[in-house]
Every structure is written in structure tokens, then in C-alpha cells.
Amino acid sequence: MIDPVMATVVLFGGMILFLGLGVPIAFALGGFSAGMIYFFWSPQALNMVAIKAYNTVSSFEYLAIPLFIFMAAMLQRARIAEDLYNTMQVFFGGLRGGLAIGTIVICTIFAAMAGISGAATISMGLIAIPAMLSRGYGKGVALGSIAAGGSLGILIPPSVTMIVYGIVANTSIGKLYAGGLLPGLVLAAIFCVYLLARGWIQPEISGGALARRYSLWEKAVSIKGLILPLLLIVSVMGSILTGIASVSEAGAVGAAGSLVAAALLGRLNWSSVEDACKETLMLSCMIFWIIVGATALSTFYTAMGASRLIEGLVLDLELNRWMVVIAMLSILLVLGMLLDTVGIIMITAPIFVPIVTQLGFDPVWFGILFIILMEIGFLTPPFGYNLFYLRGVAPSHVTMTDIYYSVLPFIALMLFGVGLFMVFPQIILYLPEMIF
Amino acid sequence: QEYTWRIQSNLNEGEPGYIALEEDFAELATEMSDGRIEFEIYPVGSLFPIADGLEAVGSGVTEMAVLTGGYYTGKLGPIATLESGVPGSMRTPLERFNFFYERGFIDLAREAYSDSGVYYLGPQFSPSWDIVSTVPITSKEDFEGLKIRSFGLEAEWYESMGAEPVFMSGGDIYSALATGTIDAARWASPAGNMNNSFHEVADYYVQPSPMPVPNNFFAVNSQAWEALPDDLKAILNQAAVASSLSYITLSMNEDANAMQEMIDSGMEVSTIPPEEWTEMEAEARKLWRAYDEEGGLAAEGVEMLDQFLQDMGYSQ
Amino acid sequence: MLNSAVKLVDTVIACLGKLAALFILAIIATMVLEMVMRGVFGMSTPWAGDVSSWLLVGVIFLGGPWALANGNFVRVDAVFGILPARVKALIDSTVSTVLFALFAYVLIDFGGDLALRSFQIGETSATGAWEGPVWVSKALVPLGTCLLSLAWVSHLIRSWQDLKQDGTDINHD
Ligand code: NA
Ligand code: NA
């Protein structure tokens, strides 16, 4: 059997090599895992890859992904997304970086509608990238704000990731939900302040060229562009809050709602529906084949004793309690470059949480920091879902290098947020303590 | 050591069933065998989803796993349901122990699972599987119109009392209870329910339990089993029994604590009176007795169970 | 000869893909139906959950080959993007193909066994609420991966042909 340290080195090395060479991501992950499993686990264990492939693709929670993509594709085809951005332009057009800030706001609302990440990033990518690029925004600002805004989906409830974490780490899901809300809003605010500052320093990539103030009348007229998107948001969130839809089903409300909205505007026709279906299929295939490969890889790593490796690393630390937490978060940061969220939770949460609790820290506070590190993992190369999702939706003149650069400042901002929440734990703990 | 096996648990680290697997199965067997067999234990779902456990163990992804029969009715038919335990039958773990090991139900279970390449080492008796609810349930009538998350035979049972069973995956239950998509959910014992935070979103804990003495089971890859010498086989058989008993006793403490904690946090116990419950159990018996018509192992199982209940002096 | 074979494969893949894309409407319809049945008529549809999940399997595995043919299997193109077309084709024909073959082999062989086993034992839905046959959707894993392999081969042939003709980029997107 392979030693877990060795496994880590080989995994990292292989991933960097194959992804770097430009092998399609899904095949790099899946093929590399298959080879490793064959040699270091057992040939029979390859069954796991097929079992998990079917199980992942047929799991009910993941249905939200194609449904929200369809909603976005339909909103775009029916030019409702266009109307929405026109309205935002009228209201924020005088403000450099205004549309990027508007995008963060919509992402935050999206985060409250969907329990699964990917749904928000892809959907917003579909809608917002062309809208921002065509209104004088640079690639960096447009891509970065969507990648970062989209990652808020797992921090702002509902969140499938928090449920997985809560069960594995034996932490109250309600308290995690309550604990994630304020940090989610604070992070969104941090992003907005940053975008505002950047708009001020670099107007040329923040819509500055097209910046102008609009009259009150223009603003009043443009409000109609908000009506349908707002109704759609109300019906999706309403369907969850009133119990008509489960969190996984809410995507269907959004998808059906987008068809109704298009019909109300008289913009519903077969070719646009067909087109939206095609786009949904293309993007869903991209995502799911990557998820299948990534799942195989993290399962292999788990089976090779990743938990024991992490346990050894942490138990050997003879540091003060704060340094232990920082070391754990650093491990999460590193694992986030390599593995998918569920894999990381499975490997580390059972080890970290008892130690953190023993050191006298609040498990809800740590849980939220953990979730934020998972969000950061969506953005860090070489393996970052949001990077791949953006690659999938961005126009072809956007390169992967553009995407990497675009997320760097946002990773820094999120790490800053983590520091902030460590210094001021009340930002996390205020709501859970008030509610429970 | 001569053998190293991977085992996937049906639970997460730290839960009583996981501890019972780790300490009272794995460590005990290693000790009894003088270190000739060792185990590495993985939490639920970390290597494969439990719903696909038969394929995973049968094909040797891991040598062993703790699985739950209720997931395999679609693959093996009603015998899998009977193996997990059915409502309206036994009430204590010792009765179940008797039924499996003395009455020989374990042989039926072994036969049922052998086609999947799985050796059924033995049951791991579990604490009760209970209902939590957002509305008080104190009578059979309260099931009328109740949207309850459940599946299989139990779903049919609740439906026969006018409930509307809803199937949803574990991850959706919390939010669904919170928003009212469902009114009730049948899930685990008090400690398990609290671990899922259900007490935060459901005010009532329904008693008596519909599944007072269910069980999971130790599944071993057939080839891995055959490769063992007889003395190791005997050791694993005994370790399975030891683990099973220790799970029950460990959970007694955990469940009592959890129950108290949930009551302290405002949860209320909602009790169905005994006479009414007896009537409801009779309804459940009708449902599983109908498995008789399927013939084969299911019919044998029903007959065995009926005979046992009769011998124990339980009503028809 | 080779050309017409490639064309045939592409056509079959596109037809199946277009069909699979319509499954998305079916998923929406099924889920909305379930919500209406539960919310308005107070009864859960026993098959809705399974059918919508199985349709998604169809979208991903029957649609995958079409997505591949359309260049939708993303790569990290930080380096790849600036390589000459010949090197790109070379990487795809060697490293990518080996990794692809490993992945596809596992899904076809082991996924095929899973589907076959499901068929043999007559596996029905795990919820026990209806008798829906599971093997149909399980069979889409090996079937879809076979088609995906054809799509990959077709992509390789194309990329070398394009290279011969005018040295254009191998991505068809
Ligand atoms: Na969310
Ligand atoms: Na990452």
C-alpha cells in the first residue's frame, strides 16, 4: 500500500502535470484516478469509480445544477437578463464598478435560493459575463466578481455543504445556517468595497468609459426591467420558505418560472427553449463529468489514509491554540487546491472538530471558517470548480490565465475575511447565539 | 499481520455504532487473532454510498462494510426488509438476537445476500428508528394527511393510516422540516436525530418507536471471507456478536442523554396510547404478512417470524 | 471512407444529444408535477424523484458525447492555449488519450457490470414506492461512455485532418 505522504506528492504532481498539459479536466481527473486506484488500491476497487459515477449523476440534490442553468439560459434568451442589466446600468451607471457591485448583489440573492454551489456561478456567468464585458468592464473585474460572488452559495443558507459538514462534524445545522449569514453578507460587502475602490483607481476596466448619470425619469422607466427577475426570485425563495418546494426542488420553480416570465413578455418561442436546453446540456455535461472525475480522485485519497496523514500533522503540532487553528485552516487551504469539498470534509472534519472543541473554541465559529475555506477552494488552482465553470461559460477570447488572475484579489479578500472573523468571532456567533 | 481489511461504517466517526465497530469488532478481532487480521475503518459514504453497498462489497471495493438492509429491497425483494426489522414484530434486542442466532434467521439472511457476492457475517443491532414531527401525534387519526418522510414497508403502513409518505434523501430532511415541505420524518434514534439537528426544526418526538429494534449488518466480500482460515472466521463471528451488543448498550447512554438534551431545548414527547398502538401494529403485520405471496425466502421469513411471535405469546 | 465514418458518428451523437437536451424539459415538468401533486392534492408522486434523477443520467451520459464534440470539455489552457496546433494534437493523441482510455474503460467495463447485474436481479427503485426498472438508467453509463469514446476518436481524427489541411486550431468551439 502507498504511504499517504507519497500519495499526496503523487496526486499533486500528477494533477499539476496533466491539468497543466491541457488534458480535458474530466479525463485528467478520472483517468489519473483510475490508474492510481489500479496500482495502489486494487483492481476491484475500480468498481468504486463506476458506482460513484452513477450515484453522483443520479443524486437528487444535484438536479439543482441543470435547473438553475436552464433558468439562466432562458432568462438570457428571453432578454430578461439584458433588461436587468440595463436597469442596473441606469441606476449604477454613474458609479464606476457599479455593475460589478450589482452582480455581487445578485449573486448574494442567488446564494439564498440555491443550496449547491455551481448553480450560482454558472448561472451568473451565463448572464453577467457578456453583460459586463459589453458595458466597458475588464475581464478581470467581470470574471473575478462572478467567481467570488458565486462561491457565497455555500456560506449563505440554504447550503448542502453545511448539511454535510454539520452531520459529519456533529455540529448544529441550524446554528451553521444562522452563523453563515452575516459572514456571507460581510464578505459580499468586502467585495463591493474592493470593486468600488478598483473602479475609482482603474475606471477604464470598471465601466468608466460608458459612465454617465441618468435622469430620474430614465430611472423610473427602467424599473420595469426589475419586475420579472424580482418576481422570479420571490417565487423561488417563497417556494422554499413556504415549504412548497424542498431546497433541491426550488431549481425547478426557477426553471419553470423563467419559461413563464418569457411567455409574459411574449418572448417565448420553441427555438429559444431548444437553445436553452442545448446550452444547459453542454454546461451540465462539463460540470458533471468533472465532478465524477474529482469524486474518484478524492475517494482514492481518502482510501489511501489521507485522514491518518492529516491527523499526524495536527497532533504533532505543539503550538498555542490559535496557531493550531491557523495550521488547520492552512491545511484546508492546501487541500482546497486539490480536492472537492465533500472529500475534504470527510477527511478532515472528524479530526479537526474534536481538537478545536477541546481547545475551547466554538464549533459553530470553526465550522463557518471551515466553510469559507471550502469557498476559497472553489477559486484556487489547479483544481477549482469555479475556475472551470467560468472557463465553460466565458467567451472563447477569455483565457484560463485571465481567469486565474481575476480570482487572485478575491482569494486575498476572502482570506482577509477569515482573519476578520477570527479577530471578531461575534460576526459569526451573533445570530446563532441570538436565535438558539 | 496476514490480512488487512478496509471497513466502511454506516455512521460517522464518534457515533456509538462507529465506536462499537472500531473497538468491539475491529480491535477485538485483532486482539483475539494475535494481530493476524487488522482493519482500517472509514466513515459512511467516504468510499461509496451506502445505497450501493452491495455492489461495492460484492465486487471488493472494500473487504467489509456495515450496511442497512432497507436500502436493498429494490434489489433483493422483501427479504431485505424483513432482515432490517419490520414494525409490529419484536420489541427487544434480545428477542432479535434469539430470532437471528437461535431460531436461525441468520441462515436465511446469508442465503439472501450470497448472490450479491456478499457474506452476511451477522446483524449489528441498532437503537430504535424514531419519528420526529412538527405536529403532535397522539393517535392513529393524527396520521391522516401527515406528510411523512419514509420509504418501503413503513411508507405503506403510514399510507394505510391516511398519511402521505414523501421520499427524500437525508440531506433534504432538515430544511424540509424547517419549511413545512414535510410534517414528520422517520430517521434514527434520539442521538442520531439530534446529530442531524432535527430537534431544531421539529417540536415533537413521537413514541412509541415504529422501529424499536432494527438492525444494520456486517457485510463481507465472499472471496475475502473464503480466504480466511476457520479460526479467524470463528473470531470474526464472535466479534460481530460482541460489537452488536456493545452498540446497543453504548447507545442506551447516548440516547438517554440526547433525549434529555432535546427535551431541555423544548422538544416534547408525543405519545400514542398503548391500545391504539396495538391496533396500529396489527395493521403493520398485515402488510408484511402479505410478503408470503412472493414465495421463496420472503415467505420462509414471514413464516419464521410469525411462528416466533406466536411462541413469544404476542397477539395476532 | 474514414470521413464518412466520422460524419456518421458525429450525426448519431448529435441526434442523441438533441434528444437528451429535451430531457431537461421533462425534468422540469416532472418536478413541477410532484410539487403540485403534493401541495395541491396532498399526495406525493412515487416515481417523480426517480424519474427526474434518471433523466439527468440521460442528459449527462447521452449528452456527454455531443458536449465533447462541441468542445465543451474544458481544459486548463494556460499553457495549452499558446501551443502550436501540432503539439496540441500530439498531446491529445498521447497523454489525453491514455487518460481518457483509462477513465472510459472503467466506466464501460465496471459500469456495464453494474447495469447487467441490475438487469439480472430485476432491481427496482430503492424507495420501494414503485416498480421502476433501475437498469435502464444504469445502462446509460456504459452506453454513453462508448459513444463518448467514439466522439473522442472522431475529435482526434478531425484534429489531425485540420492540421494537414491548413494547420488551424484543433478546438472546434
Ligand atoms: Na445557499
Ligand atoms: Na481549489
Automatic annotation (TrEMBL), chain A:
Q: Which UniProt keywords apply?
A: Cell inner membrane, Cell membrane, Membrane, Transmembrane, Transmembrane helix, Transport
Asked whether the keyword Zinc-finger is assigned, the reply is no
* Record-annotated TRAP C4-dicarboxylate transport system permease DctM subunit domain positions: 12-427
Which InterPro entries does the entry mention? DctM, TRAP_DctM
| A Pfam family | DctM
Locate the transmembrane regions by residue number.
12-41, 62-80, 100-129, 141-168, 180-201, 221-244, 250-268, 280-302, 322-352, 364-383, 403-431
Q: Where in the cell is it found?
A: Cell inner membrane
Q: Which residues form a coiled coil?
A: none
First and last residue of the signal peptide? none
Membrane disposition: Multi-pass membrane protein
Similarity-based family: Belongs to the TRAP transporter large permease family.
Please name the PANTHER family in this protein's record.
SIALIC ACID TRAP TRANSPORTER PERMEASE PROTEIN SIAT-RELATED, SLL1103 PROTEIN
Q: Return the NCBIfam families for the record.
A: dctM
Oligomer and partners: The complex comprises the extracytoplasmic solute receptor protein and the two transmembrane proteins.
> What does the protein in this record do?
Part of the tripartite ATP-independent periplasmic (TRAP) transport system.
Under which name does UniProt file this protein? TRAP transporter large permease protein
Native organism: Fodinicurvata halophila
TrEMBL record, chain C:
The family line of this record is: Belongs to the TRAP transporter small permease family.
**Protein name per UniProt:** TRAP transporter small permease protein
Q: Is Transmembrane helix found in the keyword set?
A: yes
Q: Which UniProt keywords apply?
A: Cell inner membrane, Cell membrane, Membrane, Transmembrane, Transmembrane helix, Transport
Summary of subunit composition and partner proteins: The complex comprises the extracytoplasmic solute receptor protein and the two transmembrane proteins.
Q: Where are the transmembrane segments?
A: 12-33, 53-69, 89-108, 139-157
Instruction: Please tell me whether the keyword Cell membrane is annotated for this protein.
Output: yes
Q: What does it do?
A: Part of the tripartite ATP-independent periplasmic (TRAP) transport system.
Q: What membrane topology was assigned to this protein in its record?
A: Multi-pass membrane protein
Q: Which organism is it from?
A: Fodinicurvata halophila
Pfam families hit by this protein: DctQ
- Record domain Tripartite ATP-independent periplasmic transporters DctQ component: where: 27-161
Q: Where in the cell is it found?
A: Cell inner membrane
